Amino acid sequence: MKRQWFSVLLVGLLPGLLSACVNFAETTGERFQKVMREMADLCQSKKLIATDSRCILPKMQPADPLATEEGRFAHSIKIPNPVPADSGYKPGMSPEQYYDHLCKTEAGEFIYKTVENMEGLYMMRPRERVFDDHMQHLYAMEDPYGYTDWEARDPQTIFIDPPWRTFSFLETPVLKLNTSETASTPYKRYSGYIQNKSPMKEEHVHNLKSQFGYTWRGISRPYDRDLGIAGGELIVVNLTTKEVVGVRRGYIRSGSARNSLTGVWWLTGQVCPKFEVRKNRPKDGDFSYWFISKVLKPTNANLNGQEDSDANK
Questions:
Q1: C-alpha atoms less than 13 angstroms from C-alpha of 135 in its C-beta half-sphere
Q2: What CA–CA distance (Å, rounded) separates 53 from 165?
Q3: 73, 219 Cβ separation under 8 angstroms
Q4: Mapping DSSP to helix (H, G, I), strand (E, B) and coil, where does residue 258 land?
């Protein structure tokens, strides 16, 4: 009789015990901070060289979204469907459950207006190129979801590469960080590229030809990064009226990578929405172009041709 009573009591307590285990499980953020402290101690005690990642990572700072004029403008834009202040996180949610919730309730492509026969566009906020240390740091990147190395390195070849990507030109700001550029010409314009026929033309200009542009921003709310999740928005805007014509909002989940010093590896994180053209490829260099070209339809667009583009760029 006593044994039966004990069994009933144990069964009754089991859900609470399991819930407590979930609540007190180490989060991605807690594990990351623990590893940072261990690395900092190891760097000092073993006198590792300054270029060792175990010395670099603990000194890296969280991304500052408002550090540049371009970043401040991106975060000032009012979009038709802003993310709610309450993300819907519930105590006890696992990272997978929370990620699935964000993908179902917030992520997606939101196109409010399409524009036909666009010749070019303005890249309002160029991405700063990052490397392996950033990819395994939980906070150093503002928008791991939207980032691709190709866009940060050579964005002009994403948008101007006939017949697969058929904008005629791409314009970018001349960033003040580059002291070799002259402030008297605030913009660059790329054009004229044809594979194996004509090199990319780069010119410094005083005025924009573009009618539309795009920018990006990260999403920051209390529980996201702590659970190994980061959000980002790509925003397409009319440069004259400041009307938002398209928004892509997505999320990336990391925090369980075994090939990383920290357990974080944004490069191969799980993403939603995914890149829709290539199978088994959640995103690659065409990630931004794929959405933008749905909103700003380039002249003589051949979206199907993207299947044959150079995946190694």
A1: 15
A2: 37
A3: no
A4: coil
C-alpha span between 289 and 296 (Å, rounded)? 10
- Strand pairing of 212-219 and 120-123? parallel
Q: What is the pLDDT of residue 176?
A: 65
313, part of any domain? no
Domain co-membership, 13 together with 81:
no
Q: Give the chain's length.
A: 313
Q: Domain limits at 48?
A: 1-59
β partners of residue 13:
none
Are residues 31 and 175 located together in one domain of the fold?
Answer: no
Check whether residue 236 and residue 98 sit in a common domain.
Answer: yes
The pLDDT of 122-144, averaged and rounded, is 96
In a domain, 132, yes or no: yes
Q: Minimal CA–CA distance to 145: which of 270, 246, 293, 235? A: 270
The Cα–Cα gap between 9 and 26 comes to: 28
Whole-prediction pTM: 0.85
What are the tens digits of pLDDT across the range 40-66? 999 999 999 999 999 999 999 999 999
pLDDT of the residue at 217: 98
Among 59, 77, 103, residue at a domain's last position? 59
Q: Where are the alpha helices (DSSP H) in 143-244?
A: 149-153, 156-159
Number of domains in the chain: 2
Please tell me the distance from the alpha carbon of residue 110 to that of residue 263, in angstroms, as a whole number.
33
Where does the pLDDT of residue 84 fall: very low under 50, low under 70, confident under 90, or very high at 90 and above? very high
Domain match, 121 and 157 both: yes
